[in-house]
Backbone:
């Protein structure tokens, strides 16, 4: 069967792959799927700040309405705010129009289950079967859905976050924070949360702009030069950068240094497991060994999954984990909701700092030192499976310990390497980790060459 959904919903360049026609038909397929269990599903729909959102939201809403779903428009809001509204209110599902950190010419459609989690792959396959099999069931003329709006989702979400952290401890510290929303949907929430927590906040790129003119949407070091500079100049306690749909947060320490997502993840995991005395932390196989070392050191256990936050969230739910997330700044706090959430991440990091006498850089320096290098190499989508199979055959001959949870992870005495096909792009991603940065880089380079040579031989 043809595949529509990638790792994070359906994405593409607007008016090329991601068209109004696709959104209309997909809305009908989503609605037909939902009607298998409820005669009149109620669906929340929202968007990030992209300029193509009105087109895609209108088309997807029309598709949902045409099969008999009632649609409630929540407006522009972070993806986790829509997920929280779906979980807390009487919605049967949600749809968020977003392409997260992708460039402005992209957009996408992500479907949210009744409990606020992203759909499992099996559910996406059912929608794909309806979509490609032309099994959309239009409603009778007098049973089409109704469209309404609700502007309460953001305040509901803010209250939810503030009720789940030690707000008084944070307020007493009067933190000075530089916030860079990257012109994305986080701008409608994060500044207010910091204000409520008594922070003195300096705002960068906190105006909604679907062209992301302030900076590219992905919060990587090369896009955050201004934020790092301002943190240092203003003597701030920390800086925070969000991605386009505000489900991920990246921190800058008080010296203006970029804190990689695996470090902030490990720091928060250490804090949470220490406070609970034990507990399971769930993360993909791509995450640094730093996490496992600190979690085990505090009496906890790490469970590994394939890459993808929906997979992490579902394993967390099943295992009753205390925490989970990915090395890209997407962290999941189960007491709040089972999805990545940047505003909850910011609030929890401030709580951690409020309960410590140390600065963010001092706390990061205490973590075990591992060097993680990430590279990528081109591979046509149709060759990915064959290339991976050939690589697995090769590494099995040379290494005793490999893990095929997602791609192939090769363990060796100097560290590990993970090679996995991207779910959204025609590339393989290569992660290599060692205590020595030079060794990690050499390992990553070696497997980029290995994958490239297999691709060349098959092309």
Residues:
């Amino acid at each position: 069967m043809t595949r529509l959904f990638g790792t994070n919903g359906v994405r593409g360049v607007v008016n090329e792959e991601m068209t109004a026609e696709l959104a209309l038909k997909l809305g009908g397929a989503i609605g037909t799927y939902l009607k298998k269990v409820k005669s009149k599903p109620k669906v929340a729909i929202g968007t990030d700040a992209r300029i193509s959102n009105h087109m895609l939201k209108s088309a997807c809403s029309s598709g949902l309405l045409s099969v008999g779903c009632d649609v409630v428009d929540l407006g522009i809001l972070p993806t986790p705010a829509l997920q929280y509204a779906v979980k807390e209110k009487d919605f049967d599902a949600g749809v968020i129009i977003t392409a997260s950190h992708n460039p402005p010419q992209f957009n996408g459609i992500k479907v949210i289950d009744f409990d606020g989690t992203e759909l499992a792959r099996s559910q996406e396959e059912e929608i794909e079967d309806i979509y490609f099999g032309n099994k959309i069931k239009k409603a009778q003329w007098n049973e089409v859905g109704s469209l309404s709006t609700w502007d309460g989702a953001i305040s509901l979400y803010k209250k939810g976050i503030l009720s789940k952290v030690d707000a008084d401890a944070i307020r007493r510290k009067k933190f000075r924070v530089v916030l860079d929303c990257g012109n994305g949907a986080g701008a409608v929430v994060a500044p207010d949360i910091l204000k409520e927590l008594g922070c003195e906040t300096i705002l960068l790129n906190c105006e909604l702009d679907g062209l992301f003119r302030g900076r590219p949407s992905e919060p990587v070091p090369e896009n955050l030069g201004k934020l790092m500079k301002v943190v240092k100049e203003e003597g701030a306690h920390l800086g925070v950068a969000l991605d386009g749909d505000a489900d991920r947060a990246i921190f800058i320490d008080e010296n203006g240094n970029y804190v990689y997502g695996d470090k902030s993840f490990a720091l928060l995991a250490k804090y949470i497991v220490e406070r609970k005395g034990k507990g399971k932390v769930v993360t993909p196989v791509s995450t640094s060994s730093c996490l496992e070392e600190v979690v085990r050191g505090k009496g906890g256990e790490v469970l590994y999954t394939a890459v993808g936050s929906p997979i992490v969230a579902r394993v967390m739910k099943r295992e009753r984990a205390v925490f989970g997330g990915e090395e890209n700044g997407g962290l999941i706090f189960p007491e709040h909701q089972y999805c990545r959430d940047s505003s909850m991440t910011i609030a929890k990091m401030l709580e951690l700092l409020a309960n410590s006498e140390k600065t963010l850089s001092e706390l990061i320096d205490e973590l075990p030192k591992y060097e993680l290098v990430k590279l990528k190499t081109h591979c046509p989508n149709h060759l990915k499976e064959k290339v991976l199979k050939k690589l697995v055959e090769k590494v099995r001959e040379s290494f005793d310990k490999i893990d095929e949870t997602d791609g192939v992870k090769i363990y060796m005495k100097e560290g590990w390497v993970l090679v996995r096909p991207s779910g959204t792009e025609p590339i393989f991603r290569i992660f290599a980790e060692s205590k020595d940065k030079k060794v990690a880089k050499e390992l990553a380079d070696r497997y980029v060459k290995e994958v490239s040579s297999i691709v060349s031989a098959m092309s």
About this structure: The domain at 10-151 is CATH 3.40.120.10 (Alpha-D-Glucose-1,6-Bisphosphate; Chain A, domain 3). The chain has three domains: 10-151, 157-365, 371-458. The chain has a mean pLDDT of 97. DSSP finds 15 helices and 20 strands in the chain.
